[in-house]
Amino acid sequence: MDAHADAAGEQSAGTLTVFPVPAFQDNYLWVIDDGKDAVVVDPGDAAPVLAYLESRGLTLRAILITHKHADHVGGIGTLLERFDVPVHGPAREAIAGVDHPHQGGETVHIASPAMTLNVIDVPGHTAGHIAYFLGAGPAGAPRLFCGDTMFSCGCGRLFEGTPAQMLASLDSLAALPPATLVHCTHEYTLSNIRFAQAVDPDNAALAAWHREATALRAAGRPTLPTTLAQERVTNPFLRSDAPAVAAAAEHHAGRAPLSREAVFATLRAWKDTFR
């Protein structure tokens, strides 16, 4: 199966469909369904989610939240007015409506659409950020719903966590199976590739991904989900120990050598001001 969604953004595999409902300027609100029942991840806006559910005749059965930011939680209240469903979310963040808090290491079982997800603790972007991993099965390849921790060729800003925390969080995600489909929550791919190429201009895999991502966006298609296999060779934030990436960070910082953590911290600070 192609790692990227079709023209409508929909992916079908096995008995489950995964769809990126667009919202705001560049958010994707991921809906997982079996043709009858659905789960939504990070519903920052209820209106497009409700429209999608109604268009497909779906009933919402659960909500999954990765972190507290408004563009990920803003639709919870309205959805709960329509559907009496469990809301899973981070235990260490105060989010109205969350009644199933998780710190990482737990397993979430959803009866319909039938799925079991592993909760992963990924602090960095926010202090209590979590991710959900859905193993291979009804949804086809394994799937990761990682909020704002990882993006294609990027990672989230460090609003509350430290570089060490974010690096450890990304390491835990990078250790998942290479075939894992990464369902990021923002269409940041092309801007992230610009930065990645500034860091690693001779990366052939990155150049190929740039061409593919440009074509996808020109055709009105999402660049997501990406795969962990692709991120491992194109995402500089997963490659802080790669010689070319380390050299670029050291040149930017004006000092060498840098530890792996210092390389990552330099990259993140560089990206914050990159234009």
What's the short story on this structure?
33% of the residues lie in helices and 23% in strands. The protein is built from nine helices and 15 strands.
What does this structure look like?
There is one protein chain. The chain has 275 residues and is of the alpha/beta class. It has 9 helices and 15 strands. The strands form 3 sheets. It has a 7-stranded mixed beta sheet, with helices on one face. Strands 8-9-10-11-14-15 form a 6-stranded mixed beta sheet. Strands 12-13 form a two-stranded antiparallel ribbon. Helix 5 (189-199) packs antiparallel against helix 6 and helix 8 crosses helix 9 (260-273). It starts with 10 loop residues before the first strand and ends with a helix.
Keywords, separated by commas or semicolons:
275 residues; six-stranded mixed sheet; 15 strands; globular; alpha/beta; seven-stranded mixed sheet; 9 helices; 33% helix; 23% strand
Topology of this structure?
Blueprint: E1 11-13, E2 16-23, E3 27-33, E4 37-41, H1 46-56, E5 59-64, H2 70-73, H3 76-82, E6 87-90, E7 100-102, E8 107-110, E9 115-121, E10 130-134, E11 143-145, E12 150-151, E13 154-155, H4 163-174, E14 181-183, H5 189-199, H6 204-218, E15 226-227, H7 228-234, H8 243-253, H9 260-273
Parallel strand pairs: 4-5, 5-6, 6-7, 11-14
Antiparallel strand pairs: 1-2, 2-3, 3-4, 8-9, 9-10, 10-11, 12-13, 14-15
